[in-house]
Protein: Methyltransferase type 11
Organism: Desulfurivibrio alkaliphilus
Amino acid sequence: MRAPAREPARLPQGGVPRDRLRYRDLDWNAMWREERRHKSRPRRNRGEWDRRAADFASRNLDSPYTDQFLARFHWQPHWTVLDAGCGPGTLALPLARRVHRVTAVDYAAAMLAELSKEQQRQGLNNIRPVQAAWEDDWEKLAIEAHDVVIASRSLAVDDLEGALKKMDRFSKCLAIIGDRVGAGPFDPELFAALGRPFDPGPDYIYTLNILYRLGIHAKVDFIILDHERIYPDRQRAIDSLLWMIPAEEPLSPEEQHRLEEYADARLHPKPDGRLALRRDTPSQWALIHWEKNQASAHGRGPRSPVQQPKISTDSPIKSGGTRCGS
């Protein structure tokens, strides 16, 4: 049976249908929460991060992501940097050699222990570790505004809008986010080989839209990692895949066999005897940043004037201006 024809929408004054969905009606923070509910991986709690801290630290000591992240900016020796969700010091440690002072914040005590251990080994004395979550009152923990605030791969929070507002509030001149694009570090082909469903959850586009709704015109660049990662032996290559599997959903013997078959099909030797593991889809990350003196997107006028930080002129990210925090 043919449905009756719909009567054309009556246009109110101004010519916009009342039932029209408009961009300004979208609640990106609510959509973020909803998408997180349906992703394949449950959120790791503090205990799981504590258990994985040592392994996480060893896997990130030599990180091509870190190299690309740091290369995008001219880090100034007078800057103070707040690294929110610092983990074992993936960025905080190399940044401490480039800037005046780093405050490294993480909610997992074992991550901060790994950071402190490596800080001592490297002879660094300008990193202050603070155990805190995004939801905590940072002022009560004597965390003050810094020249630069970083959230690198650490915005797995329910209230993304609240975290972004906090970043903006604690930044004097520059805020930088490293955010997942699509599957990010996860390998969709691996989950297909295991026969497991895979939904990576929401990615950087939600962050970008929430910032826009907050009146922040952020700049975006992309970090695309190589298809191959080099490992000293087969077991280390297999371990690099195992971290993707949630601890509460361990592999069955059959799945373990499939994972090893998947790895063996993609491993090939290098001339120096090490092994290269190739994946079909490279890891991608969005590098989102904004400067505090930019004009508001919604006509509230310019933010409080500060001098702009230098952005590396040899990177795809371009910015005029001089120094900040001087």
Observations:
- The chain has a mean pLDDT of 84.
